[in-house]
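Appendix C: a fully annotated inverse folding record. The material below is reproduced so that readers can follow the format used throughout the book. The structure is listed first as tokens, followed by the designed sequence.
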């Protein structure tokens, strides 16, 4: 295979970059539908990206491959190239959308409705607070867990049997002293 070409073999073509490969080469498509191969060296020099418009000096790439006796699939090969217009210069930047949170109740509603009950001198389960406030039990449960994880309230887990992995009930209160007071009030006979 020979890379030899004469000046009369050079053709000017304008095209749009349609693909940049992992290996650093690129391919362009001309207005006529011709495909043009651009070597990694040229891609690196002109720093093209997909969508950029380039003018290239091309030579015929349909010569036979000496190793396989087959023709290359792309008809043209760029030997020089210049970027005419960058896609990034013509497209207006778009602001990123605001993040969306799923699965949580509006904190204001749950906080406002549950907070007064958590100031009382008693313990509550998520079910009890759900019944008192009219808020879905899962939302109340998530609210109580977040408050407990933030060390804003205390919790006691009750297990019906010692071999259980999961608590039978979880009670929440303003602080641990509420639980001590409740336990101390129980009279044993």
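Designed amino acids, in order:
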């Amino acid at each position: 295979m020979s890379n030899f070409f004469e000046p009369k073999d050079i053709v000017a073509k304008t095209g749009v970059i349609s693909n940049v490969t992992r290996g650093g080469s690129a391919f362009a498509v001309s207005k006529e539908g011709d495909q043009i191969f651009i070597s990694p060296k040229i891609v690196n020099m002109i720093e093209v990206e997909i969508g950029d418009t380039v003018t290239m000096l091309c030579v015929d790439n349909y010569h036979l491959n000496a190793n396989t006796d087959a023709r290359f699939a792309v008809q043209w090969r760029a030997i020089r190239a210049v970027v005419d217009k960058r896609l990034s210069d013509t497209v207006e930047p778009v602001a990123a959308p605001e993040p969306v949170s799923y699965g949580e109740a509006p904190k204001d509603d749950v906080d406002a409705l549950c907070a007064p009950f958590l100031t009382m001198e008693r313990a509550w389960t998520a079910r009890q607070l759900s019944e008192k406030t009219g808020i879905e039990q899962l939302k109340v449960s998530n609210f109580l867990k977040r408050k407990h994880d933030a060390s804003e309230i205390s919790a006691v887990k009750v297990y019906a049997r010692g071999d259980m992995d999961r608590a039978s009930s979880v009670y929440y209160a303003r602080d641990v002293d509420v639980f001590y007071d409740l336990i101390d009030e129980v009279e044993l006979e």
